[in-house]
């Protein structure tokens, strides 16, 4: 069964056209035209790991349950290898839209989570995420976000003992580096600027790695892989939900994990050096 037939079966409507939007690390991306005149966005990953799209669908639903949060596309259908979402026409990040997104992110984070972690493991891009809960964010970040990817790099020959020691020292110091303790926030978990789509005058969140985490993680990811609108968003967020003193210096701490993920997924791309630089910042 080809993709159009598969989506037609899921939605119970005929597909009349298909336009490829290329491949990402998570699979193929398509715009499909339906017989009723509507368009849908389809992510397809043949042979996807068990639960791959189920976790994304659950994550979007969990984020959508937060009152006052940014808009997230409702999942129209999914199966083991396909996820179908509404098509969002491309817009631009106007100043009012950026300000509104900041307030929405603050509301999303304030909705909270029961634990640091999630009920099931997941993925960030194509990399597996261990979401087993931990009692504190420093424990969670060290044991579930930093050290697993350090071990992957070590086991693949990407780093040696000296580099491993840099990250192990960082993990051992997280309690003193993490800033004032905060309760688990409901976070997107992979909030780089490419996962914010501007449509209908709003910033929409897509492709989550949703879990209970630290709200500074989402903001640090925006800073790491952000657009020109990010500084205005950070200022508006800090006004709506003031961040603890020192949050700007802690951004590099929160960026160690996504940099390690990229080092695993894209060896030789300079991400490992950037992760080491970030970790050494806290010597």
TrEMBL record:
<dbReference type="GO" id="GO:0016301">
    <property type="term" value="F:kinase activity"/>
</dbReference>
<keyword id="KW-0808">Transferase</keyword>
<dbReference type="InterPro" id="IPR011009">
    <property type="entry name" value="Kinase-like_dom_sf"/>
</dbReference>
<dbReference type="Pfam" id="PF03881">
    <property type="entry name" value="Fructosamin_kin"/>
</dbReference>
<keyword id="KW-0418">Kinase</keyword>
<dbReference type="InterPro" id="IPR016477">
    <property type="entry name" value="Fructo-/Ketosamine-3-kinase"/>
</dbReference>
<protein>
    <submittedName>
        <fullName>Ribulosamine/erythrulosamine 3-kinase potentially involved in protein deglycation</fullName>
    </submittedName>
</protein>
<comment type="similarity">
    <text>Belongs to the fructosamine kinase family.</text>
</comment>
């Amino acid at each position: 069964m080809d993709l159009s037939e598969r989506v037609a079966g899921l939605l119970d409507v005929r597909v009349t056209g298909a336009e490829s939007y290329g491949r990402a690390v998570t699979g193929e991306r398509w715009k499909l035209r339906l017989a009723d005149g509507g368009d849908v966005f389809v992510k397809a990953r043949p042979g996807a790991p068990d639960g791959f799209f189920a976790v994304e669908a659950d994550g979007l639903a969990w984020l959508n349950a937060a009152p006052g949060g940014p808009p997230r596309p409702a999942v129209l259908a999914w199966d083991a290898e396909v996820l179908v979402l509404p098509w969002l026409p491309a817009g631009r990040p106007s100043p009012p839209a950026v300000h509104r997104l900041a307030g929405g992110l603050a509301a999303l984070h304030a909705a909270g989570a029961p634990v640091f972690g999630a009920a099931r493991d997941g993925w960030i891009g194509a990399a597996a995420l261990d979401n087993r809960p931990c009692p504190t964010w420093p424990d969670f970040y060290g044991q579930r976000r930093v050290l697993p990817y350090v071990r992957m790099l070590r086991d693949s020959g990407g780093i040696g003992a000296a580099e491993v020691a840099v990250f192990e020292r960082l993990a051992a110091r997280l309690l003193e580096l993490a800033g004032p303790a905060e309760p688990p926030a409901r976070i997107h978990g992979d909030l780089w600027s490419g996962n914010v789509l501007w449509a209908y005058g709003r910033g929409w969140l897509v492709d989550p790695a949703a879990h209970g985490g630290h709200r500074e993680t989402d903001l640090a990811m925006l800073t790491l892989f952000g657009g020109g609108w990010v500084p205005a968003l950070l200022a508006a967020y800090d006004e709506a939900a003031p961040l603890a003193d020192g949050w700007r210096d802690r951004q590099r701490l929160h960026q160690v994990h996504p940099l390690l993920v990229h080092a695993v997924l894209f060896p030789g791309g300079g991400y490992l050096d950037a992760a080491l630089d970030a970790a050494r910042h806290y010597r």
